[in-house]
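User: Hi! I'm working on a homework problem where we have to compare a predicted structure to a textbook description. Could you give me the structure for the chain below?
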Amino acid sequence: MGERGQGAGVSVAVRVRPGAGRTKVGGSYPGPHGPALIIAVGAPAVDGKATEAVRRALADALGVRAAAVALRIGATSRDKVFTVDASPDEIAVRLTPLLGG
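Assistant: Happy to help. Predicted structure tokens:
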């Protein structure tokens, strides 16, 4: 879930589902980095296309600029951790309903 990571920003664990029919953000997956937000995107898992689509979908879902979201862990994995440059309280409020809580 959202918590302070090392350095600035809030860490958000994500499970990516590339090649989906449409972009969808929601649900929880018990990933290796803790409870992860599931994000399905239409982009294929090739050349970072899915990662970029997920970064933008996460930013949109959390109500922040895409530039405020950066990949921290998992460039070639379906299990990723992004850092979001925003208030931890603000992210927690927006992330909880997306995780199904």
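For your comparison, note the following. The CA atoms of residues 62 and 94 lie 6 Å apart. The beta strands are 3-4, 10-17, 24-31, 34-40, 69-73, 79-84. Good luck with the assignment!
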